[in-house]
Design goal:
Cathepsin D, subunit A, domain 1; five-stranded antiparallel β-sheet; 5 helices; nine-stranded mixed β-sheet; mainly beta; globular
Length: 207
């Protein structure tokens, strides 16, 4: 265990201890970081500060609407049906492996979507789209189904799950499942989160 690098806002830091991003000796304009997550962990990395200037295209810069998590406006979520998310925010969180939210809105979203452990039938599952600030971010089944390999066996798991939450918890925590497709850039200098897509896929996305 090497420790934890605090990259969120001080408001949710334990005992309000200043986080790395606010207490480091980075210049104010450089208090930012980005993630590039791949299915192969050895190809994954983060940058502090900055983002990749080659090979990626900016999709959208989102304003942080609440400084606890890196929270942005969440308009809706859609699979075979649309789930309204009025009053909810998308918490863009590198510390969460999956996409997790309250049962009241996640259960209707994934109802009828069955991920077989033997990974059969993945291509028959619907896309699931998260819309933030009017921008639709679709995830294909190959994006949101997590393949776990251990001892020579591969199992498939649903990467979007619901959980019981306390009253007043109005967030969908958007984690690494989302980041593998949309590289996030967190900028504390202007309180924004931007998403980038690799150039190989950006042309199709931006049409």
């Amino acid at each position: 265990m090497d420790g934890i690098v605090g990259l969120g806002y001080d408001a949710i830091s334990v005992n309000k201890i200043p986080t790395f991003i606010t207490s480091s000796d980075l210049a104010a304009k450089d208090r930012n970081f980005s993630f590039y997550l791949k299915n192969n962990p050895e190809e994954s990395y983060m940058m502090i500060p900055g983002f990749e200037t080659e090979g990626y295209t900016l999709i959208k810069k989102h304003d942080v609407v609440e400084k606890s998590y890196w929270n942005v406006k969440l308009d809706s979520m859609t699979s075979d049906k649309e789930v309204k998310t009025d009053g909810y925010m998308a918490a863009i969180d590198s510390g969460t492996s999956l996409i997790v939210g309250p049962k009241a809105i996640i259960d209707p979203l994934v109802e009828g979507i069955t991920v077989n452990q033997d990974c059969s039938g993945i291509d028959d599952l619907p896309d699931i789209t998260f819309t933030m600030d009017g921008v639709a971010y679709p995830l294909s089944p190959n994006d949101y189904v997590v393949q776990v390999s251990q001892f020579g066996n591969t199992q498939c798991l649903m990467g979007i799950m619901s959980t019981a939450v306390p009253d007043g918890f109005h967030y969908v925590i958007v984690g690494d499942v989302f980041f593998r497709k949309y590289a996030p850039f967190f900028n504390a200098a202007d309180d924004t989160v931007s998403f980038f897509k690799s150039n190989e896929a950006a042309e199709e996305f931006l049409q």
